[in-house]
Design brief:
With 188 residues, the chain is mainly α. Helix content is 59%, strand content 0%. The protein has one domain.
Length: 188
């Protein structure tokens, strides 16, 4: 991972903590799912599907998302390994009880997309690069929550969130980075 993506992961972690922390603290299940959802959302946007022609919140079945979504899960597991968190890589998110998550996909995107897009833009990352950075952020959330939530459970929320985000038309506004003239680092 590049320095810019590492920086984006750290900044994204700070955004998620700041935006999701309440007077009672941060809800681990919600934070893990939110990080996964936004990682998937940035991946969806990188596909440059005609989202303006699609209804926000509707599922989209894309072979490219099916291929790239597991890559984000792999990025998540590699980041967990670097953080010293051991989780069976067969965790697929299907067992995650999403009723425990306190925000919907739409609420996550409305609350987090704009500040995370600002991080992306400030660092000159493309949406796909940002999706990887936010997958690392999800690993940091799992690591930070490990005192209160079993990492296997937290990873399930993050993995489910990645799948949901990369296969659902985003609610958040704004064109993908490539359409705004923001090249990715490898595209300059």
């Amino acid at each position: 991972m590049t320095d810019a993506r590492d920086e984006a992961a750290g900044s994204s972690f700070a955004v998620i903590r700041a935006r999701l922390t309440t007077e009672r603290g941060i809800h681990a299940e919600t934070a893990a799912a939110a990080a996964g959802r936004l990682s998937g959302t940035f991946l969806f946007r990188s596909l440059q599907l005609p989202a303006q022609l699609l209804t926000p919140g509707s599922p989209v079945f894309s072979g490219e998302a099916d291929k790239l979504g597991p890559h984000l899960v792999d990025v998540l597991f590699k980041a967990l390994e670097r953080l010293g968190v051991s989780v069976d890589p067969r965790v697929d998110g299907k067992g995650a009880d999403m009723s425990l998550v306190q925000l919907t996909l739409q609420q996550c995107q409305e609350l987090l997309y704009a500040p995370l897009a600002a991080v992306r833009d400030d660092l000159g990352l493309a949406d796909r690069e940002m999706s990887e950075a936010v997958a690392v952020t999800a690993a940091r959330v799992v690591h930070a929550a490990s005192a209160t939530l079993d990492p296997r459970v937290a990873v399930g929320f993050a993995v489910y969130g990645i799948a949901e985000g990369c296969k659902t038309v985003p609610y958040a506004a704004g064109p993908p980075a490539a359409q705004r003239g923001w090249p990715g680092r490898g595209q300059r």
